[in-house]
Design a protein that fits this description.
The structure is a single chain. The termini are far apart. The radius of gyration is 18 Å and the shape is globular. The strands form four sheets. It has a six-stranded mixed beta sheet with strand order 7-8-10-11-13-12, with helices on one face. 51% of the residues are buried. It is of the alpha/beta class. The chain has helices spanning 37-50, 68-72, 79-85, 100-109, 170-182, 196-205, 276-281, 285-291; strands spanning 3-9, 19-25, 28-34, 55-59, 89-90, 119-121, 132-137, 140-147, 164-166, 187-192, 211-213, 225-227, 230-233, 241-250, 253-263.
Length: 292
């Protein structure tokens, strides 16, 4: 029975290195040092060694903005570090903070697609983002639909969405899901930056979705939510956690799943091939950070 592992990174907000993260305990708030993309690389590469060809990694966005150096470089400092992780696709929200033209430039610098099926150009000059992609893992075809934040042209500064219109993605998801199934995809995954409540509404409105990777609302879900048959997961923020979803698939449907919310804690080793110095300093990222 084919198996595939999906990893989710959402709402990192430019936190490339370890940082204090807030937790609420029974006795009250507590800080601990968490995150760091070198440790994230270690988790991902260990999983890839365990299951070669069966691991896909997705980024829900809010990636190219947040910390000073990433913001001052208009997101570009993060690009070589993200490319080193071997991601499969992303979508976004604050990634449009520097304007659509820079979002398009950032997308062109990535080794993987930036997806936004609910983003529609209003002018000929406006950028166009891919709506979907198909990923291969363990002989399975996984159709992925990207949904950027629907609020980009509603509550954000007008410069974020100049020349673009964003919808709630329901009609686009319904149409693309049907097309991807017709083209032979075994699973349909939605990579969303709508927010957890909106993703639940999406699952209710669109039948036949297998997984929704949810972002925007920074929820740390210890267990995925199941809505209308769709497995919905969200994994905190700042790269302090990774979500992992292991799926067993047969006949174009999920026959079993296992989920874990993985703390990226400071006791984890950094990746032996792309350790902290090599991943953050040697990949070109720190040169851009210094330039910023």
């Amino acid at each position: 029975m084919p198996q595939v592992t999906l990893f989710q990174l959402n709402d990192a907000h430019g936190y490339l290195e370890p940082h204090p993260e807030l937790h609420w305990k029974a006795h009250g708030p507590e800080l601990s040092v968490m995150g760091g993309f070198a440790r994230i690389a270690g988790i991902l590469n260990a999983a890839r060694q365990e299951a070669p060809g069966g691991v896909l990694v997705f980024d829900n966005g809010d990636t190219f903005h947040g910390t000073p150096a990433v913001t001052l470089s208009k997101g570009e400092a993060a690009v070589p570090i993200l490319n080193a992780l071997g991601l499969s696709a992303m979508t976004g929200h604050w990634d449009f903070a520097y304007g659509p033209a820079q979002a398009d430039r950032l997308a062109s610098m990535l080794d993987y697609p930036f997806l936004a099926a609910n983003c529609h150009p209003l002018t000929e000059e406006a950028p166009r983002f891919l709506p979907t992609t198909v990923c291969k893992a363990n002989g399975l075809s996984i159709g992925v639909i990207g949904l950027a934040a629907t609020i980009l042209d509603k509550t954000m500064p007008p410069s974020f969405s100049a020349g673009l219109r964003f919808t709630d993605g329901i009609e686009e998801t319904r149409a693309h899901a049907a097309r991807l199934r017709a083209e032979g995809c075994d699973l349909v995954v939605v990579l969303s930056h709508l927010g957890l409540p909106q993703d639940c509404a999406l699952a209710e409105a669109v039948d036949g979705l297998d997984v929704i990777l949810s972002g925007h609302t920074h929820n740390r879900l210890d267990r995925p939510w199941i809505v209308n048959g769709a497995i919905i997961m969200q994994s905190g923020c700042h790269g302090s956690y990774l979500g992992r979803l292991d799926l067993s698939v047969e006949g174009g449907r999920i026959t079993g799943h296992s989920h874990s919310l993985i703390p990226v804690s400071d006791d984890l080793p950094e990746d032996p091939e792309n350790g902290g110095e090599k991943l953050v300093h040697g990949s070109g990222g720190m040169e851009l950070l210094r330039a910023a």
